[in-house]
Design a protein that fits this description.
This protein is an alpha+beta fold and 108 residues long. The protein has helices at 17-26, 35-43; strands at residues 2-6, 11-15, 47-50, 57-64, 71-81, 85-95, 105-106. It has two helices and seven strands. The strands form two sheets. It has a five-stranded antiparallel beta sheet with strand order 6-5-4-3-7. It has a two-stranded antiparallel sheet with strand order 1-2. The radius of gyration is 13 Å and the shape is globular. It starts with a strand and ends with a strand.
């Protein structure tokens, strides 16, 4: 298991081996080649949006000119509010367009 810094959430995000395997199997264009982009996207995103699929999740996105000749990396983080908030990566993927919807935060 890895813990990735996420200043936007004011804490760390849990990245389990099981979720890493899921991403590698379902999004082989992202892992293992662009593993560092997941860390960078959480640490310094271009945008944060609420997930349209999961009420307790946020989508962190960042544009990379060097990923498939220009694409976004999106990392989806779920927050479980129990006694203390637990943030964990549910998935991550590469896309050429971001989903429509509300933008919660954007880099100036």
């Amino acid at each position: 298991m890895a813990w990735l810094a996420c200043p936007y959430l004011r804490g760390e995000v849990e990245w389990t081996e099981e979720r890493e395997r899921h991403i590698a199997e379902h999004h082989p264009d992202l892992l293992p080649k662009h593993r560092d982009k997941i860390t960078e996207t959480l640490a310094d995103p271009d945008q944060v949006r609420p997930s349209t699929r999961l009420a307790n999740a946020k989508m962190f996105s960042r544009w990379y000119a060097d990923v498939q000749e220009g694409k976004y990396v999106v990392v989806v983080v779920v927050t479980d509010d129990v006694e203390a908030a637990r943030h964990w990566i549910v998935t991550a993927y590469i896309t050429r367009r971001l989903a429509r919807g509300e933008v919660e935060w954007t880099r100036d």
